[in-house]
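Structure (tokenized):
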């Protein structure tokens, strides 16, 4: 009797996994990190005007790096959302913000975590569907000893 209950449970778990697999595969594919590679980000058709990033060029540790951004939308345009992307991080999407009301300018100060030395990207979606963005390089060292030669 006990063995048949265990067998039934195992069978039901197996069936549940079979039916759930396509759902999870689809959700994983939609959140793929392949779009956030350095090569793909550099090839995006974005204008580099209107986005200013303040990030230290050298950080002794990648655990907590201060960062501030200023976004100014072009004339007659409004900011709808923006993303901060660090393509070399295990999870490249650092932050994604959708504004409740479109704005012509926006400022944000925060701290981010970087796994390695890399370019940090800010990509802004405007109300007409166009994008503006900017990137800035930050070198992460382990002991803050860096020789520029």
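Design, position by position:
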């Amino acid at each position: 009797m006990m063995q048949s209950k265990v067998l039934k449970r195992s069978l039901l778990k197996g069936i549940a996994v079979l039916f759930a697999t396509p759902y999870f595969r689809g959700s994983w594919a939609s959140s793929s990190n392949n779009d956030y590679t350095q090569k793909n980000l550099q090839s995006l058709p974005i204008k580099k005007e209107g986005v200013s990033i303040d990030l230290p060029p050298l950080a002794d540790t990648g655990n907590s790096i201060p960062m501030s951004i200023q976004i100014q939308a072009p004339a007659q345009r409004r900011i709808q959302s923006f993303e901060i992307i660090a393509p070399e991080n295990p999870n490249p999407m650092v932050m994604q913000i959708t504004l409740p009301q479109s704005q012509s300018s926006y400022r944000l100060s925060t701290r981010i975590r970087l796994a390695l030395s890399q370019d940090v990207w800010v990509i802004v979606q405007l109300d007409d569907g166009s994008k503006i963005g900017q990137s800035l390089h930050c070198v992460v060292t382990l002991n803050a000893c860096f020789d520029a030669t």
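Reviewer-requested clarification: The chain has two helices and eight strands. Confidence is low (pLDDT under 50) at residues 21-31.
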